[in-house]
Amino acid sequence: MSARYAVLIAAVGLSASLGASAAPDPESLIAALAREAPAAVEFVEARFSSLLREPLVVAGELRYGEPGDLERRVMQPYREVAAIRGGAVRVERDGEAPRSFSLKRAPELAQFLAAFGALLAGDAAALEKSFVVTATGQDAAWTLVLEPRDDRGRRRLGAIEVRGSGSDALCIAMRDERDGGSVLLIGTAAATPIAPDATLDTVLARCPAE
Amino acid sequence: MKRTPAALLLLALWIGGLAAAGAFAQRHLGVSSDLRLFLPAPATAEQRLLLEGLGEGPAARVLVVALEGAPPEALADASRAIVARLAGDDAFLFVANGELELDAFPDALLPYRYLLSPTFDRRPLDADALTAALAARARDLASPVGAFLEPWVARDPTLEIATVLERWQPTVEPRRELDVWFDRAGERALLLAETRAPAFAPDDQRAALAKLTAALAEAGVDGARMTVSGAGRFSVLMEERTRAEAQRLGLAASAAMLLLLLVAYRGIAGVVLSALPLVSAGLAGLAAVGVLFGSVHGITLAFGFTLIGVAQDYPLHLLSHRRPDREPHAVARALWPTLATGVASTCIAYLTFLFSGVAGLEQLACFTVAGLAVASLTSRYLLPALMSRASRDFGASAPLGRLATAIAKLPNVAWAGAALATVGAAIVALAPQPLWSNDLAGLTPVPADLLAADAALRTELGTADLRYMLAVEAVEDEEALAHLERLTPELDELVRRGAIGGYDHAARYLPSAATQRARQARLPDERSLRAALDAAAAATPFRAAAFEPFVADLKRARELPPLTAEPVRAAGLGARIDMLLRGADGERTALVTFSGVHDLKALGELAASSGIVLLDLKQAAESLVARQRARILASLAAAAVLLAAVVTFALRRRDRVLRVLAPMAVTTLVVVAALQALGISLTLFHLISLILVAGLGLDYALFFEHAAEDPAEQRRTLHAVVVCSLSTFFVFALLATSSLPVLRAIGLPVAIGVVGNFVLALLLTRARAPSR
Predict the structure, then answer these.
(1) In this complex, is the C-beta atom of B80 within 8 Å of any C-beta atom belonging to chain A?
(2) What chain B residue is nearest to A88 in terms of C-alpha separation?
(3) pLDDT in tens, A63-86
(4) Is the ipTM of this complex over 0.90?
(5) How would DSSP label each residue in A2-51?
């Protein structure tokens, strides 16, 4: 008798957890991510490269306004402002002359901008136009994988992985072809310290923090 | 018109011969539009430079392209697309839009970057320098810039590639938006394209222009428009415009002539008979030029055909002097002495051009002499065979008789000639503008506003002014480059002070071998480099082992032989090197060009203190024009003397000679005065027209003088000269309305001259006593 109850409870428990672990619907997930613009959010970015023995970590603020309008203000460990507006990128660092170049020359940035902008707007359709969207995980800890539809993009730039919890996107990871890439930690995730021996995967794995 | 079988056969043969000659000419004769054919050979180095610049030189081959009509991002895209499309095209030596793609650095020159870059001339490549560089690269990697710098960091952590690329940009950089050049207002994207073809090859230039427009269309930017400016573009524009105008004017002139001849001779026969010698003259002229010169210049063609306006007088005289009681042969024979005098003197006047030293004028002389000779000979010998006896005699015409009597009643106005001459001289002396135009631009048919727009665009792009230049003479390249390097600090000082906007010279692209070796010696050896790298990597997040490619490149740089001009040329910088470093073996000249000279005195002082020559090409141009003018005037003076001699030989009596020469001389003065009164300064083409005016005046005066005694002859001559002058006037008045300065310069003087010649010939050639 107790064995049968155990199985029943186990079955209920299993189904409960199964129900909770049904893959979230991408559209509703993305729609929930929508944020009102203009707004600002804290970020920490870790850059990985085969040239580096430890990740480059910068911290600052991301400000977003109109679609295609993004400002990345780095405040630690140095000051730098990169403004993307009207298809042009303008980078100004303290103590150096400003540089500007077209977004076309930085396809990774263009891709990131497209994804980030669509997520901010909660616009799943826009996202679907440029990427193949796959959602996994549960409501409390989900993962969106965005694969570029463009042939060249797929070859050179790789997929964007977005991890979050509930209606917050917390980590955005972009890998490049040379075993490097970057992870952008937003909002609450930005508080997590990054060890010198961290790799892209270890940082990503800790996101979202429990 | 005679209808015998012999006459008809002659007519058929003649027309057939003309058609064949015409077809041959069309197929085999090339038309050139190289303006340098109308300039004398250069005598000084400056003049040589100027003429090279006018056609063949690299500066003349550079086209400026402006894109507008779309938002800046779209224009920048179009600019990039055009460069990508045309970079390898063999119609262009280079197409640049200011992009500093590191990937675009020529592979062949990559190992040389440490020898080309001046970065380590003052600070060595040591641990401090590397630490600073790596720290900057680390920040770059963490920023959006990192995306395209990352592939280069391992190989070139100090980014010497970028330094060298920046040095190759003009020192006065145009405004840059979205990585490409824009104009100051930021509304038009600008590009530079250098064609392989010289500026004065309109067909090749047209092909290059077509490729540019095709590349824009391929870029697929809605609403984008392209404006191309430059010598090559202008030559195409002018060729099309000249052709269109020539056709329009030719049609109008032919129609007017046709009408006039129909009215004057009451029948189509008159038109046909006067056309035959005319066409023969034209084809004979073309044939002569073709045989002697190979091709004919467009301006010679224009001049030559209008010159035929003189030749058409000969058949007209023959037609007007026909009478029922004389065979056409006899009429021709009677007219021949006067005709021959006119032809001979005009031909001799033009023959003096053969000694002017100007190729275009030599062609003109050849064309004219051949044409006039053929026109007069065919009028004398062939035309009478086609003419039947006249049915009407213009000598008996009543209206003409009344006209002749009215003219005879005019008071003797021999003093009128003197009066006109005085007034004319006064106008010339008192006119505010200079008598002679020294401006080379006066010879080019390009409208002033196009030239101004072109100059404005070139200023924005920082391309060289081409007015002032410093010329450094040396035996070989190395010496010249070393001298340029010595000049560089002083030139930089001038830029800093604002005395000049920017400069360019060959040493910016190719340092002297001595400098390259010095830089090589300063590069660290492998051991010290690795030590420095280790220190720098320890201070930054980089791994020292990642920079093996950098170590390898520096090792190569230490062992390379110095770079010479050849590889730089082959890497695509040939255009700039060739322009700035030129000359024969043993006589090399290095030029320093400027964009924006604000303090000429400072530049002059620099030149004087360095012992080099400061060239002023504008002055060279003016001296070229003045020299040419001196030669032409000498030719004209010789022509005048010869003309007078021929007339004296033919007429023998002093008072007859004076009566014939006076109208011509006074009319010439009247024409010059009239042009001055209209505010026109005289150019080469005005001078040439004056000879034509003199030739016409001589013709009219000779015929009037010849007919002085016989009233019937007087009336026939009156008819002939009226028809001649009206037809000539129509043709040249039409030319005077052209939009092309050259055609206007031919048309206006002759139109004025025809009127003057007619009136003065009428008034001044009468014998003292009026005829009864």
Answers:
(1) yes
(2) B178
(3) 888 777 889 999 988 899 999 887
(4) no
(5) HHHHHHHHHHHHHHHHHHHTSPPPHHHHHHHT---SSEEEEEEEEEE-TT
